[in-house]
Write a structure and sequence with these properties.
The chain starts with a strand and ends in a 5-residue tail after the last helix. Helix content is 57%, strand content 5%. A two-stranded antiparallel sheet has the order 1-2. 1% of the residues are buried. By secondary structure, the protein is mainly alpha-helical. It has five helices and two strands, in the order ββααααα. Strand 1 and strand 2 form a beta hairpin.
């Protein structure tokens, strides 16, 4: 590990576990940046003027959160994406249509559906969402799983 401070460079040997953790963190960071670049590049390449669009294809996985004995950060991201897609689906298919029916005074039966906004807020809130807290913890010196868990327990003590 190389540390640069006040213009001087220091080297600190890592244990095998620390080196493996550093390698894994670097791999995940590189994967994340590469994924972002790929998505951005694809979006730039397939961008067309709205007048040229003749059809849309949508993909939706509405199965929600799964329960595994051990979950990973990647699984959390997959589940979060699924919940966000479900919210979009609910918003456009149920909420907006039902609002339109009310405006036009069309007779219909209200469709009850689960609203996962609270679940999404728990993950994506800019200040006290899981992702924001994890981001904060990763930037702090002497960050640890224990400190991250303690913050979650404190911030979510009253969350049902």
């Amino acid at each position: 590990k190389q540390i640069v401070a006040a213009g001087e460079t220091y080297y600190k040997k890592l244990t095998k576990v620390q080196a493996a953790d550093a390698r894994d963190a670097l791999s995940k960071a590189m994967y994340g940046k590469m994924f972002d670049w790929i998505v951005k590049t694809i979006n730039i390449r397939i961008e067309v003027e709205a007048s040229n669009i003749r059809a849309n294809i949508g993909v939706l996985d509405i199965f929600g959160f799964e329960s595994f004995a051990i979950n990973s950060f990647e699984q959390l991201c997959i589940n979060y994406a699924n919940e966000a897609l479900q919210q979009q689906f609910n918003q456009f298919i149920f909420k907006l249509e039902q609002t339109e029916y009310e405006k036009e005074k069309i007779e219909w039966s209200f469709i009850h559906f689960p609203d996962n906004k609270d679940c999404l807020d728990l993950i994506e809130h800019r200040i006290n969402g899981l992702i924001a807290m994890l981001d904060d913890e990763c930037r702090l010196p002497k960050a640890s799983d224990e400190k991250f868990a303690a913050r979650m327990y404190k911030d979510y003590a009253t969350n049902p």
